[in-house]
Amino acid sequence: MKFRLSCLALCGALLMVPATWAATAPPNIVIMLYDNLGYGELGAYGGGILRGAETPRIDQLAAEGVRLTNFNVEAQCTPSRSALMTGRFSIRSGTYKVSGAGSPEGLTLWEVTLAELLSAKGYATGIWGKWHLGSSETRFPTNQGFDEWYGVPRTYDEAMWSHADESVDGGPTIGSKQGWDEKLMPPQYIYEARKGEAARQVKKLDLASKRNLDAEIAERATAFIKRNAAAGKPFLAYIPFSLVHMPTLPNPEFVGKTGNGSWADALAEVDHRAGQILDALKAAGVEQNTLVILASDNGGEATHPWEGANGPWRGTYFTAMEASLRAPFIMRWPGQVPAGKVSNEIVHIVDLYTTLAQVGGAQVPSDRAVDGVDQLAFLTGKQANSNREGFPAYVADRLSAIKWRNWKLQLIQQDNMYDPAVVLPLPRLYNLLTDLREEHSVTVENTWAVPRMMSIAGQLKASFKKYPPIEAGTPDPYSPPQ
Fold first, then answer.
1. pTM score of the predicted model
2. Does the annotation mark 132 as catalytic?
3. Catalytic residue selected from 7, 11, 132, 163
């Protein structure tokens, strides 16, 4: 009898093992990074129907997780993506500005990406969309920790090259004699690549292929999710969608969907693509053990006729104005992140590297400066405050502003990306709670705050002595100076 009871107890224990393993399995990580999706576009951030299209799937995601109102990025596409992948301010990595076609650019292979960290912990890693961190094949994402990639190395502006003599949904036109010539500048291609294999050019990037790209991104990302979920393998799915980067053109299936023009149709597609990813997680049975982040790499577009909406903030990207630095950020992780939480605490995109490394059980490198701080306790509601109070804001290689708590110190004034950058003779201090549009400097009556803010920049510059920044265009192999 005792033997039978022992066997029953053992069988019961064995039946419990899979459930225990499932509870402690490494969480999957999904990052949906939209391109130049301004602060004021989504319904959860005051946009949605005000921009001509509701965003119900993303708004529901926000209701199920935490939404930040003070999530900060860098001023351009390449710097933000570099900061996400390395946890380092882009001024350190030589990736502080967008480089044009034909220029040496991208991350050196010395950098350790988030994909490399998680891959070493057994994660499957995939990226679909714009990389923008190296357009030579040696610096493609499949040489930087990703198992697979489908997308473009640089940016979407180049989709307009072959249409330079045509109007792009009301956009600018150029006479054909002055237009693009493939002999002068080769077209950009959409690539497909797998780790350890040569990348393959799939098709040219033009207006037609850009319109269809987000549908392809969603299709490939969902297949990756289902494949790895079925195999029981944890995964990092990095999904940098193309929308709403100019030219802001919706998929043909969405043209006319809202009746409010191309921009609203594109916003409707943004919401739909997010829904496709979320549905794939649920269908694959991994929704409960997946951390989902939805964010933007920059503020809204600044070029007519594709201008974005930045909510209450003034300015454009490629500046240090709040419209450039603040971007939407939503994070859902069932059972871990409190639902419906909204916070105005400062978080920077570099923090995602350190935080997600912690989630995946990886250690950040200790042989270099890592600027990201671990925000896991804050985002999961275990503490009320962010572990970050401020940061220096660079525009390209110019220290342009410093944020600290609810204060903003502008050192260089530039409201619009097309305006000249003017070094201010006296820094302008703004209270971002009472002056959202940064119009009334209160430096004189609050000089007490300036030394504290300048110390943030001082600490960063002091660290350059120990860890010298990498110069833009530095070739591989790179080794830091001893």
1. 0.93
2. yes
3. 132
